[in-house]
Each structure stands twice: as C-alpha cells, then as structure tokens.
Amino acid sequence: MTLLTIEGVWKNFHGHSVLRGIDLEVRPHEVVSLIGASGSGKSTLLRCVNLLETVDDGTITLEGRDVTDPRVDVDEVRQRLGIVFQAFNLFPHMTVLDNITLAPRQVHKVPRERAEEEAHALLSRFGLAHKATSYPDQLSGGQQQRVAIIRALATQPRLMLLDEVTSALDPVLVVEVLEIIRELKQTGMTMILTTHEMGFCRDISDTVCFLDGGVLLEKGPPEKIFSDPDEARTRDFLRSVL
Ligand code: ADP
Ligand code: MG
C-alpha cells in the first residue's frame, strides 16, 4: 500500500531536463528525505507533487488517484497536502491564529469556533500558545517556521512536503524546528523533506533518496546511504557535506 507513487516523472525547463525519469513510492507513515547538490531537482520534484509544476512525462498518484491527469481538481489535491517552504510564508497582516485558521475556515469550511479551538490545541502542543494573537514580525524565525508548520497541519494533510524548512534560520533556531518535525514523525505523519541537516536526515528518515542532475541515483535506508552507498557520486556528495 503506497500513499504516493511517482512513476517515470520528467520535467523540462527551456529544453533542459531537470527531472529525468523519477520513480519513488511513499508508504503511509514513511519519512522520505531528498538529498543532493543544489540544482539537482529536489524542490522541483516537491513542486510537481504539489502541482505547482506540471510534469512533462510520467504520473504521480496520490491515494490511488492520478494527480497528473489534466482533468484533476488541483485545489482538491492540494487540500490533501501540507506544504512548508524555506521562506516563512506567513501572512504578515494576520495574527498567528488567523494565519492558522484561514485555510480550515475558507477552504475546508470549518466553523470559526472549531477552527480556533483546533488551532489553540496545535499551538499548545508545539509550545506557542502564548503567541496566538501575535503578528509574524513579532516572532523569531524559528517561531515563524513552527507556525508555518502548524498552519500546514491545521488542514489535516495526508502528506507533508517540507522544503529546506530550516535553511533560512540561525543555527540556534534550527533545533526547535527540527524537534517539531521529529514529533510529527512520532505521530505517524507521512513526509517528504529536503534538508541540508544531514545528521537530522539520517536520524529521522526511513528512506533517503540521492538526486544527481535530475536522476534519483540511489535510495535506501539512512544506515545504508550514509555508511555504505552503492554509488560513487553519493559518496562524493556526502563527503562534501558531512
Ligand atoms: P534543488 O531544489 O535540488 O536545488 P531545483 O529543483 O530548485 O533544485 O532546480 C533544479 C534545476 O531546475 C535547476 O537547474 C534550476 O535552475 C532549474 N529550475 C527550477 N525551477 C525553474 C524554473 N521555474 N524555470 C527554469 N529553471 C528552473
Ligand atoms: Mg531546492
């Protein structure tokens, strides 16, 4: 049983292929990390899953439905995904509470009272209960990114896509964001993430995928990829970042 199946996905930009026949299966509760040099295609792959990019060939199946079918309801697909990017994309003119309840209320039609109850519960769970009425610029970068993750969680996604969520943070703030991701794993959340934090990647991932020039060159459990990769290019990459 897979939650997400990526089969033979190609993506071209201006005649240049940045994804070259990607195959990947993600099972429920699995944490999959994408690693590889800058420009290897990690973000593009996540953007294809989220339908921010259309694929040029291949299929992506989410919970049994082909989401690369042109007739697909894009909004309906995105409602099953939670996405957090590197840059904090909170709405600056809204409080933390309003940021979190916006999608549940407007997209999922959850009544305000219930949406706020659930938002408060999430804020408490992640140590941010006292920030509900703050505006994003009153929070640290780490707090903003935690709110962005909470906001993504508030719609009860089936799959979380996390793209370099700690890259814009001061090192001291990285830890609190990684902790939240660790806790998500404990609750069984299915995730695909890209990260430069190799220690964290090794620790949290069930499967690590090494992308090289748009090719998913190698994948396996972290013990295997980090200690005894099959491909010389994987070894070279890890040597350059560890
Ligand atoms: P990564 O996330 O691994 O750093 P990306 O997926 O961002 O890599 O980029 C893969 C390649 O695709 C890069 O060469 C990048 O320049 C190119 N690329 C990404 N998005 C676009 C775009 N919208 N238009 C043109 N080229 C793009
Ligand atoms: Mg990227």
Automatic annotation (TrEMBL):
<dbReference type="InterPro" id="IPR030679">
    <property type="entry name" value="ABC_ATPase_HisP-typ"/>
</dbReference>
<feature type="domain" description="ABC transporter">
    <location>
        <begin position="4"/>
        <end position="238"/>
    </location>
</feature>
<dbReference type="InterPro" id="IPR017871">
    <property type="entry name" value="ABC_transporter-like_CS"/>
</dbReference>
<protein>
    <submittedName>
        <fullName>Polar amino acid transport system ATP-binding protein</fullName>
    </submittedName>
</protein>
<dbReference type="GO" id="GO:0005524">
    <property type="term" value="F:ATP binding"/>
</dbReference>
<keyword id="KW-0472">Membrane</keyword>
<keyword id="KW-0029">Amino-acid transport</keyword>
<keyword id="KW-0067">ATP-binding</keyword>
<dbReference type="InterPro" id="IPR003593">
    <property type="entry name" value="AAA+_ATPase"/>
</dbReference>
<keyword id="KW-0813">Transport</keyword>
<keyword id="KW-1003">Cell membrane</keyword>
<dbReference type="InterPro" id="IPR003439">
    <property type="entry name" value="ABC_transporter-like_ATP-bd"/>
</dbReference>
<keyword id="KW-0547">Nucleotide-binding</keyword>
<dbReference type="InterPro" id="IPR050086">
    <property type="entry name" value="MetN_ABC_transporter-like"/>
</dbReference>
<dbReference type="InterPro" id="IPR027417">
    <property type="entry name" value="P-loop_NTPase"/>
</dbReference>
<comment type="similarity">
    <text>Belongs to the ABC transporter superfamily.</text>
</comment>
<dbReference type="Pfam" id="PF00005">
    <property type="entry name" value="ABC_tran"/>
</dbReference>
